[in-house]
Amino acid sequence: MLTEITGSFILVFMYLLSTKESTKFSKDQVMQTIVLAGSYLVAMTFAGSYVEITNISPVNPAIALTMTIVNSTQSGWRSSWIFCAFGFAGSLVAFLFF
């Protein structure tokens, strides 16, 4: 649960930092893309602990819900709330921290 919150926090916080004009790392579009891709890679690496049902922590609540729908099993639905709720919680913490 903590890894899902932290991964979502990293992803959303870096996105907010790189899209607001006053906090951009660079005005170069390529550099912004690299920063966003890097932050996604870090978030997935950090939160990518193996979970028995889905084998990954998707960090993104929409992806988590889609994975649950596509791989619909009873045990998958029982654990899907973790990825959805804590993904949004990490995003909210990042927004408040920003």
Tally of helical segments: 4
Oligomeric state, counting identical vs distinct chains: single chain
How much strand content do the residues show?
under 5%
Give the rounded overall mean pLDDT.
Answer: 78
Largest sheet: none
Report the strand count.
Answer: 0
Q: What share of residues is helical?
A: over 70%
Order of helices and strands: HHHH
Describe the protein's topology:
Elements: H1 2-19, H2 29-47, H3 61-70, H4 74-97
What would you say this structure looks like, in words?
The protein has four helices and no strands. It is mainly alpha-helical and 98 residues long. The radius of gyration is 14 Å and the shape is elongated. The two termini are 21 Å apart. The mean pLDDT is 78.
Short description:
With 98 residues, the protein is mainly alpha-helical.
Name its key features.
mainly alpha; 4 helices
